[in-house]
Amino acid sequence: MRENDMLEKDEIFSKVLRAGRRTYFFDVRATKADDYYITITESKKFTEEDGSFHFKKHKIYLYKEDFAAFTEILEEMTTYVLNHKGEEVISERHQKDFKKEFTSETENSEPAKIDKSFTDIDFDDI
Prior knowledge:
Blueprint: H1 3-10, E1 11-19, E2 22-30, E3 36-47, E4 53-63, H2 67-85
Antiparallel strand pairs: 1-2, 2-3, 3-4
């Protein structure tokens, strides 16, 4: 079998979730026996002081026999977090490279205006 045929067979369906410095890849793949399983990969970008960067990746393999239990526990855990802490994200402020995007308002100043006339392009998308 040619290498291209193997790649087509291996990756069946994919989705990407970009979330700040993290990117999540969800891939349906095929086993040698032509059964399907899912891989979930977290890729996190780290920038060095000199401007260079590298990625750290973590991968989970999820097989069909575990789908129901995995889905049930994931739903239970996400519901627990949202019920106890809400949907507001507060942890970003504590990251060493966190940059506040908006200036705070003072009593005598008007709210900051955001220029939406440009297109935000992430070079990872190119």
